[in-house]
Design goal:
Layout: E1 2-10, H1 12-16, H2 21-34, E2 38-44, E3 51-57, H3 60-71, E4 76-83, H4 86-94
Antiparallel strand pairs: 1-3, 1-4, 2-3
Helix pairs in contact: 2-3
Amino acid sequence: MAAYIMLVSWTQDGVKNIKESPDRLAGAKKAFQAFGGEMKEFYLTMGRYDMVVVAEAPDDEALAKIALAIGSGGAVRTETLRAFPEDEYREIVAALP
């Protein structure tokens, strides 16, 4: 499965209803499962982003569906990065001319 880092920020609505955030997190985990992915790690963070998620999904299309499903709730905005673990990084670099 492909690895992803999701940088997540609360919207004004998300902050307004912050007490609902743990339930929304449970819903996000279910969204990952529904599209064949898995939320591997979750962190509440300080700084530019409010949360960071480390996840896996079968492919970019599945992750796009997950991000849209989560974002459509209106409580968060996401920025997603495709992440390549060390072994894949080494293969990519080794394949360069």
